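Morning!

As promised:
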Amino acid sequence: MFRIRIEDDFDASHMIPNHAGKCRNLHGHFYKVEVFSIGNELDDNGILRDSDFIDLKRTLSDIVSKYDHKHLNDIIGDDTTAENIAKIIFKELKDRDIKKLEKVRIWESPRNYAEYWE
Ligand SMILES: [Zn+2]
């Protein structure tokens, strides 16, 4: 089995209005996004079949650019938790025909992340 991983990042503000703690207040994060792909077959170039780094990076960069320097509550129709952001980015990658997707990990700070996979 093979696993590859790429990462990108973005800065954004958000708030979780019904949160009992300080997350209800307007604040920002430097989000790190990691995308993992797995498969057991390599193509003729020795690259994980249907999962080239270049394609993955380009697609992720395009998705992430929608969120960079934005207020997430304005563009995400759900609670702007790391869990939901991971799910949304996973779905967007799938919608753009990224195959062999394993999971998406969103780091909200250097100490905590959330992951989504299916
Ligand atoms: Zn936050």
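The longest helix spans residues 82-95.

Hope this helps with the figure draft.
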